[in-house]
């Protein structure tokens, strides 16, 4: 089969590789559509480790074609989407519903090829069936929406709250969409590029702040009579964005960090001391209440409460994976979500 493999910094290309037989607990999918995630770009630029052996790509969906030993909950022909990791189901974190902290957590395709390949090997513990009426494009958007939905849930935000989102990329826009679907009182999102402005408006943002053109702190001060936002969700990373989040959250408000922080930062922690704001992380997805974040994301898309396909700006065949990454990495291209289609 053909698979897209990293070969160096900003280098990814197609190789002919052997299609693997699924190990016990794993299945093989006929890959249909896979999104280029911000974490994929971190690897592309060398911020995170690259695998020069196996194809990456975790925002993926496809059709089950082969079962490994012990897999009984799926059958060939099932249409599925995948979480980015597997979990054991036995450790204390799994038993408590915090399976995103599983003691044996591994990548969904551990030591095998993932979504940027013609066939994806995935552990059954991270697979979810998608409704018959859901397109493969929508199926490939479940994963990032689940990340964003959990971030809003981690904040404990309600219909009485004002929520600010730092960053107008995929996760930020999906945080906005989830917040609107959940009935949040008032939403604000920061953006850098024109395509992000337009999308945020289409998703129903109450306030769109174009960084570089508007002073965020002064805008929020005027909007909230000096109090600040009840909740801030930071989706970008970097010390400046963390400082922005702390500067606009109200005293005793909540800040949720869902960005891919790939290096240590120097930040002013006195902001937390004096404001008594709660700062927490949001790690992928798990259970929020009685349902998984993946089930919630599937329902939000299937019900029409989130029009997830609005985020997809570019689509490329697998053979053009190099161009897909170049476009995804250059926001001046107009890209928000780039998909690889098969």
Quick overview:
The protein has about 350 residues and is an alpha/beta fold. It contains 11 helices and 19 strands. The relative contact order is 0.16.
Descriptive overview:
- This protein has 342 residues and is of the alpha/beta class.
- It has eleven helices and 19 strands.
- The chain has helices at 38-44, 92-95, 136-139, 142-155, 170-181, 194-202, 216-223, 239-248, 270-275, 293-302, 321-329, and strands spanning 2-8, 11-16, 26-35, 59-67, 79-82, 85-86, 106-107, 119-123, 127-129, 162-166, 186-191, 207-210, 229-234, 249-257, 278-281, 287-288, 291-292, 312-317, 337-341.
- The strands form five sheets. Strands 3, 4, 5, 8, 9, 18 and 19 form a seven-stranded mixed β-sheet that branches.
- The radius of gyration is 20 Å and the shape is globular.
- It starts with a strand and ends with a strand.
- The mean pLDDT is 96.
Comma- or semicolon-separated keywords:
alpha/beta; Quinone Oxidoreductase, Chain A, domain 1; Rossmann fold; 2 domains; 27% helix
CATH class of the largest domain: Alpha Beta
Class of secondary structure makeup: alpha/beta
CATH fold naming of the largest domain: Quinone Oxidoreductase, Chain A, domain 1
How many structural domains? 2
CATH superfamily of the largest domain: Medium-chain alcohol dehydrogenases, catalytic domain
By DSSP, the count of extended strands is: 19
Mean pLDDT: 96
Report on the biggest sheet. Answer: 7 strands, mixed
Q: How large, in whole angstroms, is the Cα Rg?
A: 20 Å
Give the CATH architecture of the largest domain.
Alpha-Beta Complex
Shape: globular
- Could you tell me how far the N terminus lies from the C terminus, measured between alpha carbons in angstroms? 12 Å
| Low-pLDDT windows of residues | none
Helix content: 25-40%
**How many alpha or pi helices?**
11
Strand content: 25-35%
Topology as a string of helices (H) and strands (E): EEEHEEEHEEEHHEHEHEHEHEHEEEHEHE
């Amino acid at each position: 089969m053909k698979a897209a493999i990293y070969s160096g910094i900003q280098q990814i290309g197609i190789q002919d590789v052997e299609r693997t037989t699924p190990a016990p607990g794993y299945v093989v999918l006929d890959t249909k559509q896979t999104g280029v995630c911000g974490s994929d770009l971190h690897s592309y630029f060398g911020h995170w480790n690259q695998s020069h052996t196996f194809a990456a790509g975790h925002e993926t969906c496809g059709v089950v074609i082969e079962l490994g030993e012990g897999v009984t909950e799926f059958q060939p022909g099932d249409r599925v989407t995948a979480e980015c990791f597997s979990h054991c189901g036995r450790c204390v974190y799994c038993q408590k519903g915090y399976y995103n902290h599983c003691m044996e957590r591994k990548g969904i395709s551990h030591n095998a090829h993932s979504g940027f390949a013609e066939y994806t090997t995935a552990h059954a513990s991270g697979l979810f069936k998608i409704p018959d009426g859901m397109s493969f494009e929508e199926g490939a958007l479940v994963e990032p929406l689940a990340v964003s939905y959990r971030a809003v849930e981690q904040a404990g935000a309600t219909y009485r709250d004002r929520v600010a989102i730092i960053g107008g990329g995929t996760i930020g826009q999906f945080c906005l969409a989830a917040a609107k679907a959940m009935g949040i009182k008032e939403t604000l999102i920061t953006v850098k590029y024109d395509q992000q402005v337009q999308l945020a408006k289409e998703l129903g943002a109450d306030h769109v702040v174009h960084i570089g053109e508007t002073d965020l702190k002064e805008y929020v001060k005027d909007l909230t009579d000096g109090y600040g936002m009840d909740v801030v969700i930071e989706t970008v990373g970097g010390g400046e964005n963390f400082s922005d989040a702390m500067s606009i959250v109200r005293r005793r408000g909540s800040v949720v960090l869902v960005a891919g922080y790939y290096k240590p930062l120097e930040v002013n922690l006195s902001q937390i001391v004096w404001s008594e704001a709660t700062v927490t992380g949001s790690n992928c997805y798990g259970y929020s209440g009685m349902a998984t974040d993946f089930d919630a994301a599937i329902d939000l898309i299937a019900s029409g409460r989130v029009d997830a396909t609005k985020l997809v700006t570019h689509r490329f065949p697998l053979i053009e994976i190099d161009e897909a990454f170049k476009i995804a990495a250059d926001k001046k291209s107009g890209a928000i979500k780039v998909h690889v289609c098969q």
